[in-house]
């Protein structure tokens, strides 16, 4: 009797899963709504009104003390924006009065939009000023310096400095003064 009940339950379950019965698992558990796509027009407006003075409207900062955001890894930018924001009375992970003020009124969707907007902008290349520094920098970037315990930068930032999504930022074209 128990075996027959188990077999019957199994057959009914398989029929439900296969859609042969009028009620299916899909009906019981409708799919979650797809996340909203960030509003890039709103992000462009925010970039122009709030961010341009320090980072440039297109993310190519003209000020060496401020990072270039154009072409940056979007997951990295989003994480950094979130880290500047104080949430639920907890202090921001990255304490910075200027950036804290800038992100205070932004929602998570706004920050995602900004990250995607800047990631989609074309990064302008940087200019090296000293050939000896360039050569030393290339050596450190590719091989590190074992005598000082410095790993190769390329290990985390990629062979051409493009970054690794969600983990390490793009360094290519960034100001030496900022880096």
Can you walk through the features of this model?
This protein is an all-alpha fold and 179 residues long. The chain is built from eight helices and no strands. It has helices spanning 2-18, 25-28, 40-55, 74-83, 97-103, 108-119, 131-143, 154-157. The protein is globular, with a radius of gyration of 25 Å. The model is unreliable at 2-28 (pLDDT under 50).
Brief descriptors of the model:
mainly alpha, single chain, 0% strand, disordered N terminus, 179 residues, globular, 8 helices
What is the rounded Rg? Answer: 25 Å
* Mean model confidence by pLDDT: 84
Structural class based on helices, strands and sheet pairing:
mainly alpha
Low-confidence sequence ranges: 2-28
Q: Note the quaternary state here.
A: single chain
Q: Major sheet, described briefly?
A: none
Q: Beta fraction of the residues?
A: under 5%
Fraction of residues in helix: 40-55%
The number of distinct β-strands equals: 0
What is the ordering of alpha helices and beta strands? HHHHHHHH
Query: Termini, distance in Å?
Result: 74 Å
Shape: globular
Compute the number of helices: 8
